[in-house]
Amino acid sequence: MMGSGQRNILLLGFGNVGRAFARLVAEKRDELAGRYGVSFGFSAIVDIGGAVVDPAGTLPVLDIHRHVAAGKALEEFPELGRPGLGALEAIRTVPCDVMVEATPTCLRDGEPARTHVLEGLRAGCHVISANKGPFIWAYDTIMEAAMERGLAVGLSAATAAALPTLDVAELCLAGSRILSVEGILNGTTNYILTRMHQTGCAYEDGLGEAQRLGIAETDPRLDVEGWDTANKLILIANRVFHAGLTPRDVAVQGITSVTPERIRRARDEGRVIKLIGRIAPSSHPVRVSVGPEALPGDHPLAAVSGSEKAVSFETDSMGRITVSGGHSSPLGAAAALLKDALRIALYHDRSLSRSSKASSNP
Ligand SMILES: NC(=O)C1=CN([C@@H]2O[C@H](COP(=O)(O)OP(=O)(O)OC[C@H]3O[C@@H](n4cnc5c(N)ncnc54)[C@H](OP(=O)(O)O)[C@@H]3O)[C@@H](O)[C@H]2O)C=CC1
Ligand SMILES: N[C@@H](CC=O)C(=O)O
User: Domain boundaries in the chain?
Assistant: First the structure.
């Protein structure tokens, strides 16, 4: 537990991202201890059928990973498996310092992850999330619950993961006014559009490939209908501009109507079609929109290809800052979760113990 040197993690969801995260943390255990003096253990991992539990935080994560990769159910892991143990029961009964949410994003109401996050905070855990659902619907409620308890909420993995978006806006651009944000924030659609551009294939073919890479959402309509991009923009707008937005407030168009013919026409004109998300921070209310656009070849986002992403901030005093790369992948999402977990361990916990101050940001 907190202060004993090891931070224990309760992980919800053991799919592409959950597995990549558990494995990354286990494989980097010695490196993290050596470089940062921080050590993480897992006290519970939960998926839809049950859980594995070890309140001491010594779950043999790599063995569990191998067990699941061999096609066996998580909850059937010898001795530590708990068939039928659900997320809420695990949150209420298994001690942890940090709860990681990596279950599927639900656009309709953010559940059940929204309840998981609030219960995790009530149980006194910091929360880091790859899941956008809770925060598109209940951002302010969740942040208030965290602030009241002096707990941190990390959203790097939910806001384009390996591509830093919040860090750039909040840290690198501190003191500058952000006039506009535009970006390619969904790797799946950028992968599909790139394949269509290169090979003339239909969008369904590119989607199958993105699913095999493990980057498409559990429900891939979120990707191709533009909602994953919109959800990331809502989180960025709510965090950076205190916009108070939900999915009801955004104009979203995806790529399902982008035909090979339209791609060809754009190419003949020296243009490239990309799914672009925009935030206009100074409009009231803050305006967020998503849709396919035919960019001229020299546009800073035109060369972003495959599952890579990019974000571009226009500022009053630093000019235009564009960050690109950070391709979508379960490993990239895992690395973003690890970044938030480390930051909580290094800065939040220590400053809390020194000053007893609360903060909602890791
Ligand atoms: N894939 C990526 O590259 C990225 C994904 N994300 C986000 O990460 C989250 C997870 O994505 P991903 O790993 O790809 O999705 P997967 O579909 O691969 O994995 C989801 C996991 O959650 C489990 N699960 C579903 N419902 C529950 C529940 N009620 N309680 C406990 N576990 C549950 C599933 O169990 P079971 O398999 O048994 O059904 C599965 O283990 C999503 O919210 C996504 O938006 C963020 C960044 C990148
Ligand atoms: N489906 C997303 C991954 C998670 O955010 C993407 O394709 O970028």
Answer: 6-162+330-359, 175-325
Of the options 3.30.360.10, 1.10.10.60, 3.40.50.1980, 3.40.50.150, the CATH number for the domain spanning 175-325: 3.30.360.10
Q: Is 8 in the pocket of ligand 1 (CB under 6 A)?
A: no
Q: Return d(Cα 32, Cα 39) in angstroms, integer.
A: 7
Give the binding-site residues of ligand 2, using a 6 Å CB cut-off: 161, 186-188, 215-217, 223, 228, 328
Task: Calculate the alpha carbon distances from 165 to 51, 104, 152, 346 in Å.
Answer: 33, 21, 18, 21
Q: For residue 319, how far is its CA from the centre of ligand 2 (angstroms)?
A: 28
Q: Check whether 359 has a pLDDT greater than 90.
A: no
Active site (catalytic) residues: 232
**How many other CB atoms sit within 10 Å of the CB of residue 38?**
18
Residue to mutate (ligand 2; options 221, 222, 223, 231; most atoms within 8 A of CB): 223
* Residues 86-145: tens digit of each pLDDT: 999 999 999 999 999 999 999 999 999 999 999 999 999 999 999 999 999 999 999 999
SS3 label, residue 164: coil
Cα 341–107–219 angle (5° rounding)? 90
Distances (CA, A) of 62 to 69, 182, 209, 349: 10, 39, 27, 27
Distance 158 CA to ligand 2 centre (A): 9
